[in-house]
Amino acid sequence: MRGAVLILAIENFVLFGTLFALGGFLLAWAARAAALRDAWQPHPVTLARTFTFSVVAPPLAALWLVAASLLPEAWLGHKVFDSIHTAQHDLHLLGLFTARIEPTLAYATLLFVVSASAFALWSSVRAHARIGGIIKRLEMHAQPPSPDKVALVERLAARHNLDVGLVMSDYPLSFMWGYTRSKLLLSSGLLNTLTAEELAGVLEHEAAHHARRDNLIKLILAVSSRLSLIFPLTRLVLLWRNEQVELICDEVAASLTSSPLEVASALVKVRRGSPVSSYSPIVTAPGVSGFLASDTHSFERRVHRLLAFTDVLLTPAHGIRLSQPPIGVALAVSFIFIFSLALLSLLTPFTVHWAAESIIQIIS
Amino acid sequence: MRRINPKITLRGFKPGARGAAHVLGDLETAVMELLWREPHQTVTEVEERLQRGREIAHTTVQTTLDRMHRKGYLTREKQGKAFVYAPRYTREEFELGVAQEVLGALLQQFTEPALSAFVELVSEDASALDQLEQMIREKRRQQKGK
Question: Do A131 and B123 touch (CB under 8 A)?
Answer without folding.
Answer: no
